[in-house]
Amino acid sequence: MQIKKIELTEIDLPLVHFFETSFGRTTDRRIILVRVEGEDGSEGWGECTCGEGPDYSEEWTDSCWVTLEKILAPMLIGRELGSAADAWHEMERVRGNRMSKAAIETAVWDLEAKMLGVPLWKHLGGTKEKIACGVSIGIQDSVEQLFEKISTELESGYRRIKIKIAPGWDVNVIRRVREKFGDIPLMGDANSAYTLADTDLFRLMDEFELMMFEQPLSNDDIIDHAKLQREIRTPICLDESIHSPEDARKAIELKSCGIVNVKLGRVGGHLQAAAIERTCREAGIPVWCGGMLEAGIGRAHNIAMSTLEGFSFPGDVSASKRYWHEDIIEPEVEVSADGFISPPDAPGIGFEVRRDRIEGLTARTTSIH
């Protein structure tokens, strides 16, 4: 398999509703799409899941654009790849920049699956013919507004509710949610908003019997998380701290977590995601798919990844309409009334990319060949 051309396109896509975390509020997404073209004209698509600024990650839209255009794409043009897995190895000598790498690497996996005429999820070794779906709900302007959103998602069939927490939006909010909705599957995502000085706060929140606390402490930490985990009953889920199978192995060895969130962009693509899933599964640690406000292409890749055996909890893989008035794929991603998505049987990601829709949203584009 030889890559003849790589196209980058940045689109501006407004969210249906703002999404707020401890990092801040997002109302519009600047998304970089990657199209790789093979020697026979076949194509594969990937999506860069970085944020608009360097908050969740050091990478952000403008830095990824430069890295993709000037460094990573030229490394693959004209290279003979034995398989899609070789895309990661070709880029491996570049340190970090995993979201940029994942944008290309996932596109190459889509290309290879299409060339073979098989669904991407089966090509990756997926075993699940349906995946359980949860939702992530950002910090709201009021608890009453949060109640409305939770009610809507439960009525839509979602099988797990994740709410963002931050200092001042935690104990009392979770208490009121429990009082209102009872023992629904509920978790709290802190996005690194706390320190070990807040241990007593987390002990207090143990009473709410949450599924997990996601990344409560520093984004690059596994030591203090181990200390916190010893002090509380609720499992800690690591997100930002896990970039590689080695990170996962070390965190498990230190007992820093009981669960791991896997995000394609954060770990560098499908090859690394599968390695982390295997490392965790062999250690008895469940994993699940986190979300990064992806448009349809990134969402399709998440669906494929979530079919791997170790993905035991409902992921942040929800319907297109939750985020976008109109997605960039067809059919749009839909969730069944009982909260599941069935991976498509068509080759590759299994969805048609809407070039007309993308053209109408395009802010800039370039081609490397």
Helices and strands in order:
Blueprint: E1 3-21, E2 24-38, E3 43-48, H1 61-76, H2 85-91, H3 98-116, H4 120-123, E4 131-132, E5 135-137, H5 143-155, E6 161-164, H6 171-181, E7 186-189, H7 199-205, E8 213-214, H8 223-231, E9 236-238, H9 245-254, E10 259-262, H10 264-267, H11 270-282, E11 287-289, H12 296-305, E12 329-330, E13 340-341, E14 352-353, H13 355-361, E15 362-368
Parallel strand pairs: 5-6, 6-7, 7-8, 8-9, 9-10, 10-11
Antiparallel strand pairs: 1-2, 1-15, 2-3, 4-13, 12-14
Helix pairs in contact: 1-3, 2-3, 9-11
The helix fraction, in percent, is 25-40%
Describe the main β-sheet briefly. Answer: 7 strands, parallel
CATH superfamily of the largest domain: Enolase-like C-terminal domain
SSE sequence, one letter per element: EEEHHHHEEHEHEHEHEHEHHEHEEEHE
CATH architecture descriptor of the largest domain = Alpha-Beta Barrel
Determine the number of helices (DSSP H or I, runs of at least 4 residues): 13
What fold name stands as the CATH topology of the largest domain? TIM Barrel
Number of domains: 2
Low-confidence stretches: none
